[in-house]
Batch of 2 targets.
Target 1
Amino acid sequence: MAVFSRAFHGRREQDPALPPGQYLTEDFPVLSAGPTPPVSADDWSFTVTAESGERHAWTWAELMALPAEEPTVDIHCVTRWSKLGTTWRGVSLDVLLEDVDTAADYVLAHSHGGYTTNLPLEDVLDGKAWLAFEFEGEPLEPVHGGPVRLLVPHLYFWKSAKWISGLQLMLDDQPGFWEELGYHNYGDPWREQRYDGD
Amino acid sequence: MAGTALRRRLGHRRLTARLVETRDETATARTLRFAVPGWPGHLAGQHADVRLTAEDGYTAQRSYSLSAPADGEFVELTVQLVPDGEVSPYLVRDIEVGDEVELLGPLGGWFVWRPEQPGPVLLIGGGSGIAPLRAMLRARSAASPPFRLLYSVRTPSDVYFAGELDSPDVTLLYTREAPDGVERTPHRIDAADLTAYGLPAAEEPTCYVCGPTSFVETVTGLLIDAGHDPARVRAERFGG
Ligand SMILES: Cc1cc2nc3c(=O)[nH]c(=O)nc-3n(C[C@H](O)[C@H](O)[C@H](O)COP(=O)(O)OP(=O)(O)OC[C@H]3O[C@@H](n4cnc5c(N)ncnc54)[C@H](O)[C@@H]3O)c2cc1C
């Protein structure tokens, strides 16, 4: 049974481009669990570790040498803001995972600063995820995960790990930082999968 | 990091909360005390999502820190009015004792202080960011390790929980206008303030920083510069 809040008159139009419970913001709020770690492009690197232990690594210069794309996507934060039509520049994970030999079904993204988040492997393939290093034509700011963050726009934004340092391929799923702390394991904004049990 | 057992303990519920008491903190902020039958208790620092439903079924939901420690089936939220906002004006101005909202929580297991946690605690809040820090301050007991609170406010009339903060462990850092008798000239928190009123990095305090994003960015940066281990710095950003 719904609980009505007397004298509350909702007045915001729900834009059909917005998933349920989200509101539109024009600025770009910052949310992270701790301080912004200082990561410079010079010491940034990205490592994919397969379940066999085999490693593939890229430096900043090597990432820059790969073909980049400019996805324009909507992003949705679990704290309820959404931004529509954001443009990024980055390398598709399809490119980075092309030569990786794996039977894994899951990945755990690792970040500088110790943050982790888990995703099904299929959610980062087929043009669904990027390593992004530009936002709206500018280098990605440190507070937003610069120099390089994961961009997985179809899931709540905590899955788009800032300051990404690597992907660990896993046969079995393993929850990451927020997933351990009661947030939803998958995080589909269109199904409002915010918290464990939603 | 936490395991599955913890996740279960932190499992949230969606409950009906009835407003039983309000207290004005400032001209634009008030503390709301709700009776919430079935509330499972919470850790200092956790938050809850408030869901409002209009008569036509329209809903809006926002996060608010629990501003008091666990107290049976009662919870307190302290809300700052965001002009133009959809939810905060309702909570600060319109809702009356007896009215009901839905509460989802408790939520969040990172920005929390646990009584069994060892080591001193440094709390640094700006504006409404005092809310979860006040819960931590009130959750401590005589046996707790040292606590220190730095609270950044614009002017004396912007202080929340004014009656409770008169303690040697609490320093109010005025940014625009200070009351008579305060020596520190009003300015935004800086490295010298951390040295003068904080706890040294050598004592390895767990640091909790809460407030608007720009405040949190500044303060966490100052803490790292002062030698605090980033792993011991926890932040909650309210947006803005
Ligand atoms: C974990 C968490 C805990 C929080 N705890 C508290 C608390 O204890 N006390 C408290 O007062 N607030 C707290 N907040 C902020 C709160 O959730 C709301 O964002 C705030 O009350 C504004 O909501 P609104 O509906 O009034 O404004 P909205 O209708 O959401 O927005 C109004 C205008 O302000 C902008 N805006 C949106 N969100 C924010 C924001 N967070 N801050 C500033 N401007 C914004 C919008 O772009 C818009 O222009 C917390 C937020 C989080 C994520």
Note: Residues 60-64 of chain A form the longest helix (5 residues).
Target 2
Amino acid sequence: MRIRTVVALTGALTLSLVSGCAQGGAAGSGAGSVTYWLWDANQLPAYQACAQGFERENPGLDVKITQMGWADYWTKLTASFIAGTQPDVFTDHIQKFGQFADLDVLEPLDDLGIDDSAYQAGLGANWIGQDGHRYGAPKDWDTVALFYNKKLTEAAGLTADRLNSLSWNPKGGGTFEKAIAHLTVDRDGRRGDEPGFDKNHVKVYGLATGGAGDSDGQTTWSPFTASAGWNYTDKARWGDSYAYDSKTFQSVIDWYFGLAKKGYLAPYTDYTDGANPANAQVASGRAATAFDGAWMISTYYGTKGLDVGTAVTPTGPSGKRATMMNGLADSVTKNARNKEGAKKWVKYLASDECQKTVGGYGIVFPATPDGTAAAVAAYRKKGIDVSAFTEPVTDKRHARTFSFPVTDYAADVYALMRPAMQDVFANGAPVSGLTKTNDQINFILGQ
Amino acid sequence: MAAVTAPPTRTSPVSVRPLRRRPSVGRVAAWVVMAAIVLVTLLPFYWILRTALSSNTALAAHPGDPLPVDFTTGGFERALGLQSTKEAIAQGGAAGGLKFWRYLINSVVVSTLITVCQIFCSAMAAYAFARLRWRGRDKVFGLFLAGLMVPTIFTLLPNFVLIKQLGLIDNLLGIALPTMFMTPFAVFFLRQFFMNVPREVEEAALLDGAGKVRIFFRVMLPMASTPILTLGVLTYITSWNDYFWPLMVSYSDSSRVLTVALAIFRAQTPQTGYDWSGLMAATLIAALPMLLLFGVFARRIVSTISFTGVK
């Protein structure tokens, strides 16, 4: 009897699961719904608010938002294109755009009438593929600035004005190197620019490490390479060759990682993605300053016991300061189940109305000027001054913004440059070795 | 030794009490080493608890503090979905939240389904391989065992295509199906046991007029209850911990199991700093059912493994 019961129960359970759960369909999309994927959980409430506005304007259409973490997001998205379970619309990143364009999985958005001039400069054009079609509608942007621990900078006698007017050069390091040397303190309390400083026993580093920077150096070396006048590739986008073999690039990298040898920049071993990123080094008092992105504003300012300020990146040999300006976009998938609804939703996401709503949450800078203004106001309301991030975008005379390199084979470039840069930073390999890596990269690009 | 040399002159209560043996140096050293191993083993669990009870916004400022930093139960509240989005963000957590109970039920359903079905089917197969005589039996078994050598990653894609064609993507049954019927290990494990059951038992049942089916259900299965229990616990833990396959198949909350949910929860705020306290709290709660299961059955599992091993 007992066995029969077990068998019967198993059968019933299986049957109920087959009949009960099988109704769902792959990604849960129906005729009147649009599926939308994004990776940043902190933006979820803002986009849910946008979706409500969209649904009001488009009765009969509803938006189903799925949020997944950054790492799983891309694995799953790529798998979903192959399996045919892709969402109708997804948040796209410029680094991944080339690969998706290559896979031919994106729907052209030319008929949406996206006007590049309605967005912050440079954000719209990045999403035009090599075939001349548009594949993404501008969504939001971020820049990089210098976060600093106010307690430590004040103790070192560095005012906010001074931190905002630093300059550097690859030969002597300029006032920037002087500042971080002065912020560095060894275990005996001697500063980095004082005689007898012990670079092997540093208590507080002047600058936190964000790792070796891989192929883009977004929050590590890129403010320096770009303000020295260097560009990743031969063309603004879809370039044919990379320039990691350039003398300018290599001299800047040599100087930048040389800061670690002098004891001013935290060593490579201090950096752990996740467990000990730059913000944790600043929070724990291990480092006085850190280059980090606008997406980290709330984290730095929200850290208990940390009084933080922000400054623009230092002026380089080109006479300008530089910061990477990275813009995200929304893309429609080629095999979207509800293509019409998907395009309507993307158009709404790119509209001033939705971007102002998102800006109001004070988490990202939306791509339209009004959306950006709403975000700045929301930050101000929280008592946070974000001008170090917005000024480089508006002040073209003193600052230069640049984008992630947009090329084919971005994943291969990353795979080659990551260990090469780590070798330079962690093992002290000569920067001239990057020439060989660059040759390999350009060989792949020439295929 | 000490007891022998003690002078038995007085009959006071003190001398009646058995004297304690003086611990030898080796014994003390063994105890010290054991205590150290236990400490090292338990330390990660303590660190999980300490982090879970810390405030996420203060953790980075005191990374090495042995006690919870800025004590709060916010991590547990976030893990159990008791916090509003606003509170969660203010405490350095993610807005996405964790529908803990939903994922827990999904995990229980998937693990139970896999365990019950797999053990039942594997037991039948093991019985056939061990006690029934049929042509080519050993060859088939050899082929079957070869299945043990095939890495799971090779079967991933065909399995995915099949599940998709069955329309079971984003479905709990889709997650369970590939391992639901049997695994070579389970069949092998139970076959070893059935082979060692004395033939006389089966013959006695045959003489009593029982058929093969009846013998299987009434004689063999009850006799195998201990190895089945062991296998059940092991299978349950394995399917509970499985990550990659559920990640591939599940697309929404309706089919998300705990392991996948925890990984997604962890990855929610990678750029803005992980919600370590929420994640550690959730991990602790998620591990609890397995710890309980193991705690209850640990002794039986160990004895079964040694039993089958000696035989």
Note: The domain at 100-267 of chain B is CATH 1.10.3720.10 (MetI-like fold).
